[in-house]
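Input chain follows. Return structure tokens only.
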Amino acid sequence: MSSLFTKPRKKSRKPEPTATPSAAALHPVANPFAESHPDALHILRLSHEGRGVARNAEGKTVFVEGALPGEWVTVKVQKTLSRYNEAVLDELLEASPQRESPSCIHYANCGGCQLQHLQQASQLAFKQQLVAELLGFPESAMAAPLTGRPLEYRRKARLGVKWRKDGRLLLGFREKNSPFVTATPECRVLQPELQSLLPSLYEFLPRLEGKKHLGHLELIQGETRRGLVVRLLRSRARMSPVDQRLWQDWATQVGVLLFFQDDQELICVNADPGPQPFAYELQGLNLAFSSRDFIQVNPEINRRMVAQALTWLDLQGDEKVLDLFCGFGNFSLPLAQKAAEVLGVEALQSQVERAAGNAQANGLETRAVFLAADLNLPLRQQAFADRHWDLVLLDPPRAGADQVCQEIKVLGADKLLYVSCNPATLARDAEHLKHQGYRLERLGIMDMFPQTAHVESMALFIRR
């Protein structure tokens, strides 16, 4: 069976969608619509970004927004480049049996989701095939995907704020492949507590005197509190007293912690939030975080992901564990419940302080300590590199852990658990780990972002 997606080119001056030749491309299917639609395209597979991939009559690759494998479509070309064209679906001549109607009325324009037109089971198949092929791992040997609710899962989101010339408010995610903002007075992927704020914001924001000075809004849902960060394009000190009072009255009415942020500071203006205004439960722990912190946006998948990490690592209680890119302790503190010692390393001092505070609040300060360090520097220069570690966990940003993985054998760990939000950089780093003497033992995906092309994966490496 042919793949649902395209492999990336290994060498590229810039990130760009690419396609590799396939049997279907070398032996094109005859166009059954040639008489009425001679320019119809046959969709061969999905790209990594979730777009349909076709070849036109000249053999040039065409990436088609909104098209699925097996479909016949006509397209409108949006961009013509030397190696490929970018297009949007114009007319669907023959639909895939995997196609379904999007659940969101804004889906055609909004760039927040890419795959609502693809059945949920097929979304998972696409993501699993993508990771398996990039890592060169048998798909049949992969762990079962971790899945949760396909909608109403997201507990943090940043929304753009723009105003049309006629004064109409545009509040929402960016449009597909565009800097413009889609007006989304409802969003099906947000948790209900955050969804309920959107109609109120659409009614409230036009009343502000300084509405044109709003940059973006960030919605945050903790276990018991929800918050709103208002990013200002100019200093809060210049906000009119009328607007300050309007904001405070609105926040009290809807029950949110309200933060104003400009280039200098972030201030909560309608309550005393304490040093850690938000929190969530995880493995019997209470993890506090602030509005500035990175968090896993899908709480259900986060819980299952951490539980799977503990199962795969199979801690016996005497291990020394190194958690790199640890944040405020999402993995470190559950690990500390099972291991003898955990050291969490993170670049931001604020995150390190938050993690240490979480360790103390949960009675784990003697088993989990935290250190600020730049993990883009050579590993041998790091203060923790002169110790032996039994296990290493890596949960890096999308750029991956290139520098760490090139030298990781100096840590002496028998097991490495890599949690990735970007399969391309995971594949690159897996090659480094192979040369460092590790083999890929287990692999699985977590559907952290349903309805999108983003995929989270977990890989367990064992020293050979």
